[in-house]
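Predict structure. Input: Fatty acid desaturase, 370 residues.
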Amino acid sequence: MTGLQDRLTPAQVEEFGAELDAVRQRVVASLGQEDVDYIHNVIKAQRSLEITGRALLFAGFFPPAWFAGVAALSVSKILDNMEIGHNVMHGQYDWTRDPALSSQQFEWDTVAPAENWRHSHNYIHHTYTNILDKDRDIGYGILRMDPAQKWHPYYLGNPVYAVMLAVLFQWGVMLHDLEFDRIVKGERSWADTKEVSGRMVRKAARQVGKDYVLFPLLTGPLAPLTFLGNATANLVRNLWSFSIIFCGHFPADVESFTEEETESETRGQWYLRQILGSANITGGKLFHIMSGNLSHQIEHHLFPDIPARRYPEIAAEVRAICEKYGLPYNTGPLHKQLLSVARKIVKLALPGGEPPRTSTVESGSTLRAA
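Output follows.
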């Protein structure tokens, strides 16, 4: 992928946006019972896996039962995080008027409070996708993921920080809302974090109490094995979530932008930024479900409030529209995208990085590779 291939005039950008609007309108008009049945079936499967996993841990003295229990619990936590929690809290099922599927009422099985996440992710990230100094998901406040981020000796630890973030990902997502880097810079005081941090403490206490106190104690003498099983399931979910999310945002050729470049942005320009700032991951149906269909990150960034199960059916059409306008459609298998992300993390640990790549979009604006 080499970025934007052809110059787009203002008229072309808006024509491009109108075609994507038409895709969105068609999908929204077709939403119905199949979508409701799908998410209910995924929720039933997730709950069944959680019950099965926790039941098997009661027989944890038998190694096959312990491993099966951990596997079931891991898949349950991944489904809750990716295909259910993330998508429901995006408002993808608010149109059903079902309280259980309400973006404002749903709470997921991680230490990150839903209310904090909805602000930092739904609003900040999806409004300012890949805009430097606006989208806090670029580096999560601890990593250098763009050559335009000023280098500091601190970033020599980039690979170490990335591994730590992957292992503790749910905690990284929780602390993300604290904006600790802004506190260090004096742009935000501890007093400003009172409400946000209060929700963090309460949610983390409930999660830790459930996974590492209540359920282990319920298994009596098997408490240490249950504790280890829960910790392992959380680790598997963390590593998987980190991999999917980073592969959708930070492979080579994913682009970033400045605030100046996105001033007075039109709908078409917003769509264009989402295309250039995202990447997909190829795979089969089960892989897409386990990724929460964030393997279709391009389609998700274009239409974050459309049920994610619809992304595979529109992916070919979105790609064809990109090809029509000479735009890149960044996609590849998980191992390829993950290796690309790893290379970027290591490369940007050092001073410099790839020189800015410029492509003309609209009248004179330029886009830089992340």
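The first strand starts at residue 255 and ends at 256.
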